Amino acid sequence: MTLPWLLRGAPCTLLAIASLLASTPSMADPGSLAAIAPHNDAQLDAILTFKAQEILDRMERLEGQSTDIRVQVSFDFKEGALRIHFGPGILPNDYGASFEDQHDEFRHSLTHIAQKAAPVKEITFRYDGREIEAYFPEVRQEAEDAQRARERRSQGMGTSDAECIRGPGGAVASPAVPAGVEAATAG
Known about the structure:
Blueprint: H1 3-8, H2 11-21, H3 33-36, H4 41-58, E1 71-76, E2 81-86, H5 97-114, E3 122-127, H6 137-154, E4 165-166, E5 172-173
Parallel strand pairs: 2-3
Antiparallel strand pairs: 1-2, 4-5
């Protein structure tokens, strides 16, 4: 095929070639028009879901996690809420720091993309439609203990020994003595 032959072709051919050669702005490009133009929910959700699946596909699995996991992401512009919904297979055998660490790249990468369209005020994760506490009830107790401790500190009160925070594996921490440190060496 030669250029003169293409030029004799239908005008659609030239339009197709021009569109292939032209760079289109994308949300991944911070200075692009797409980054500052308003987006609808479906467009942004598709971009976020694609990125989340990409992260998930290359993520190292923990014991008990499936190799075939799907993820769906939605962003609510009005609430500034980023919602990440994992399908079956995401939950490991044990909840712990490694599982929490897996969430970091989702938080950082997806927030970075979504904030180009609107401020992100909230991030929620769901696991096969439910909160993590439905599968690991100890997480709810830890969150409630931490919230009570924050409230006491904000009111100028310390945390009494009776209100120590229980961490993973039952380790006890307080503002004076971190978990895993003996009281005699905490000074």
